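Forwarding these from the shared drive since the link keeps breaking.
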Amino acid sequence: MILGFVKDRRLSALLLAGACIFAGLERSSGQVAAPTATSGAAPGAAATGLPTFDVATIKPGTNDDRQMMMFTPDGISIKGVPMQMILHEAFGTEDDHVIGAPSWVKSTRYDIEAKVAAEDAPKLKALTGEQRQQMLLPLLVERFNLKYRHEMRELTSYTLVVAKGGVKMKESTPNDSAPAAIPKDGAADAPKPLPKGHMLRMMGPGHIESEGTETKFLAHVLSQQLGKTVADKTGLTGNYDYILQWTPDDATGPIPGGAGSGPGQDESAVQAGGPSLFTAVEEQLGLKIESTKGQVDVIVIDHLDLPSAN
């Protein structure tokens, strides 16, 4: 069960290989149900019977733009990830549903290597992505002195639905395959096509490519782009291939090298003056982002310290 996402100045990628940090989420609404813990409690421990990390190393991360979070067979590996991202992954929700955190969470990055005891490692295979996310909470409570509570507040958010014209994305099929693997020197067998993966990549501002992913992953990335939660209300359960291109709001002029349609382009896939994100989602994918407002469950951070020494 592995997830990795790497971000740098030219490439942001959400790589979904098999069952991953999001792939196991079982939610019809597209939103992660908030844990039922009260302030300072640690769901995923005694409350749910999930394994807990037996050992964890926490160090300051680098200040460059490279970030990685990956499930390992016996735990999780985090490199250069801001605490804000760790928090919303642990709670299984978007940034706008986690409030009250100190300002340093946006800029302070951490490298975390956490492992369960050897006898608990086999149990991780049976856990959903949501459950593995929740395993971070006891670690944050113990090492960062995290205290939090739940409140109902009125927030503006978005829902992702199917547009009137219907879905325009191509549904992936089990027979789809990736390019053939290159054999090692001296290998007798000819290269065989690899099974098609599940990958959602953001190739710079204004360009997303999907290879066999569900719409809930798109909703997660759209949430990051819009700064507000986007709930998947499409009702779609298949895996889809698509390319989504739009002009980011901060685009100020033509992109060096012109428009492109795949990896290797300069900073964006579209030129200024192209469609907005809302228009592109409807015209290119056959989906629609709708604004909603209502009472939602939010996590209020009452206390968070810099981590205790290893």
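-- next protein --
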Amino acid sequence: MHVLLMVFALQNPDSLAVRFSAMTAVTGYEQAMTDSLLTLLPGSTRDRTGNVTLKIGSGTPKRLISCSIDEIGYVVGNITDDGYLMLRRVGGGVRLSPLFDQQLEGHRVTLFGRRGAVPGVVGVRSTHLTRGRPTQNDPPFTVDNAYIDVGATSRGQVLALGIDLLTPISLTKRPTRYGKGLIAAPNAGRRSACAALAAAALTKPRVRGSVLVAFTVQGLYADTAGLNTVTNLQGPFDESRQVSVPVKYGDTAVETVALSDVEALVRDVVQWIAGSR
């Protein structure tokens, strides 16, 4: 009975959407999430780029259905002598709002070092030292203004935590369910679409021909490196599709998805895999 309940929970799109939204996969640093996918999806494999794929059925027609798991994030760009960390953004490019980095200001972050996750917080300007200063002409907060405090007082203490240059960093993930079936979290749209794809694959639908289910990495690079690797290694495909769900407040810390849309996507994907639509 406990095993059946656990399997049901894994297949439940709502539970998977929350679970996936709590994960972090900064583009180029997706291994922890792909490790979870390999455990979740029996028979799946990871290729040389890091994509996780699961083949259902055999023969032709040969189709591909995919989602991209990576997200815009940050890495450590410098460690000061007094133990603060400075950042560099990874992913996004010119398409981002110039205010994107303001989500960091004063908020909790998680650093994924060699010894596991380390909590930190992004500092803000002192209200005492800036009180009374005109602010209307001050430039907006950017990644160059971000200093992370992990409780260290020296560079050596930072290194002892397992944190070094290029350690990936993200906002601390706290997916929140609210209203009538809504979920809010950074990257909730991408993660919920991937959750729907995983839930559909776990139902093991019958397939006409073969379908490759792919959870791709490095999708935020200009050449979508992960998806290209899947196509080059396991293609060509007679048909391909990338899954998505509608979002509100995109590219913010409260990106919001309706769980009813996730459930609808699961049904749609199951039909697509089965070749009935």
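The chain has two domains: 8-71+174-274, 73-171. The chain is about 30% helix and 25% strand.

- D.
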